[in-house]
Amino acid sequence: MLVLSLESSCDDTAAAVVRNGREVLSNVVASQVAEHVLYGGVVPEIASRRHCEAVSGVVTEALSRAGVTLDDIDVLAVTNAPGLIGALLVGVSFMKGLSFTSGKPLVPVHHLRSHVAANYLCHAELEPPFLSLVVSGGHTHLMMVNDYTDYKIIGRTRDDAAGETLDKAARAMGLDYPGGLNLDRASVNGNPHAYQFPKPHVDSSPYDFSFSGLKTYVINLIHNMEQKGETPDIADLGASYMLAVASCLTERVEKAIDEFHPQRFAVAGGVSANSVLRRELTLLCERKNVKLYMPELSLCGDNGAMVGAQGYYEYISGTRSDLTLNAFATKEISL
Ligand code: KG4
Ligand code: ZN
Description:
By secondary structure, this protein is an alpha/beta fold. The chain has helices at residues 33-36, 44-66, 85-102, 111-122, 162-172, 179-186, 212-227, 234-260, 275-288, 304-316; strands spanning 2-7, 12-19, 23-31, 75-81, 106-110, 130-135, 140-147, 150-156, 264-268, 291-293.
């Protein structure tokens, strides 16, 4: 079964052709980073307009690189939530048009579900149930993936997402958007123990995360140093901050492993590309004897292929949409 998929929830216009939820035939991304970098972050209206311009070309390119035509496609899958509403509406409207003219079934895909599904593309043997951590620019969820379309949230952030806190810290350190990625690059040779950070916790919710205190702490640290005429060593500060964020994440993962005894653990989302987090999770899973799954770096961030993977599992579980499909800025991962 061939799925043609489209992702436009943030600043990437991405389309793909995926076979049976596991095999990527094509994966095309038109990134808008070069434009948003001028503003230090994603400007929603610009994102919508660029999706509008790029979407047709990206979908055409995905079909052509896969060596197929629309006639060969069985299912159309599109991200419809959560994300920037104007950006999502472009993708949803485009795929509704394609479904109307072609008569092909249309399947809506939840953005975080698709991030988890990026792992199905990289690990043929991975099947639910497994423990999963989704860390993106807007979300931080620790959950059990009981089945391909059945999730149980164990913990989530009470304030900033992991990606957001890395982006804001990077900005305070004078690094360009996308902050998390540039912080990772700038800190390769840094000392992760050069600076100490508080360990935030949420009273009576041991699996929930809180990152806003860490963010404020690092911003104050930088301002205080600047007032004293000191210049922070960005490599050391970045490495220490990434370790602090990664430790918050791995501590909850460890606790969940001890309580729920999963055999498999999969990390996903843009922040799963982070070198420190990948290293810390590798050490943790080795120590706990849990099989660790991580997407390859090119599939950690937003992409069309992950939507095609999850779209396949949504379709075979019976999910269908008609032409009244809408987009939503927020939506729970489980209904
Ligand atoms: O999943 P994603 O591409 O988009 C959302 O759904 O939000 O995640 C974007 C986030 C941004 O916060 C970005 O800074 C972060 O992922 N990110 C990273 C790295 N690459 C991307 N954070 C840390 N280290 C990286 N290597
Ligand atoms: Zn994402």
